[in-house]
Design goal:
By secondary structure, the chain is α+β, with helices and mostly antiparallel strands. It contains eight helices and six strands; from the N terminus they run H-H-E-E-E-H-E-H-H-E-E-H-H-H. It has helices spanning 2-7, 9-17, 56-74, 85-96, 102-118, 135-139, 142-164, 168-178, and strands at 21-28, 31-38, 48-50, 81-84, 122-124, 129-132. Strand 5 and strand 6 form a beta hairpin. The radius of gyration is 20 Å and the shape is globular. The chain starts with a helix and ends with a helix. The relative contact order is 0.13.
Length: 179
């Protein structure tokens, strides 16, 4: 998301202006931050967005929510798309394989959703319904999706090669010795 925030800062600023917010982006090389500040002084304050890796679960959640948002708007509807939390959990379970601790898995998803709510990418009105804000389509764009897809392919290839190559460790060591 960090690269998208940086690359799309002018567009994000323009979009947020209409909802009463000013977007500030500061990138100091290895460190940086982004935050929103209200245009109206009586409005609530801002939330700092620290530069950090999302992790695979958060990335999957963002992709699923982005797809739901896109499908909603492609059908000719406007406004915020929604998704039931139980439906999101069901989809994530299908990607996660065997889950040993269901309660911990659901709690982890809840934590991620609360973070997305604080970041104003979604709105959670009750514990069941997730409202997807339009800014998600600016952040989770084609470039971000391609990088995520490429990363998943790399992970899958690494996992496949480790699981199917009995002499994988010795091959790696031999390769190092040759160089």
């Amino acid at each position: 998301i960090w690269e998208t925030l940086r690359d799309q800062s002018n567009r994000i600023c323009g979009i947020l202006k209409y909802s009463g917010w000013t977007y500030v982006f500061v990138d100091n090389g290895d460190d940086g931050y982004a935050y929103l500040t209200p245009l109206n002084e009586n409005q609530d304050g801002f939330e700092l967005l620290k530069k950090e890796k999302l992790g695979i679960l958060m990335s999957y959640i963002l992709v699923i929510l982005r797809k739901r948002y896109q499908d909603y708007h492609d059908s000719g509807r406007y406004g915020m798309a929604s998704m039931e939390k139980d439906e999101l959990i069901k989809i994530l379970k299908s990607y996660s394989g065997e889950i040993t601790n269901q309660e911990k898995f659901i709690d982890n998803i809840t934590v991620k959703l609360k973070k997305l709510d604080r970041m104003k990418l979604i709105a959670i009105r009750d514990e069941k319904t997730i409202w997807i804000r339009s800014i998600i389509s600016s952040l989770i764009n084609a470039e971000w999706l391609k990088r995520f897809s490429d990363h998943l392919k790399e992970v899958k290839e690494e996992k496949f090669s480790v699981e199917n190559d009995e002499d994988n460790e010795s091959d790696i060591l031999e390769g190092l010795e040759e160089k």
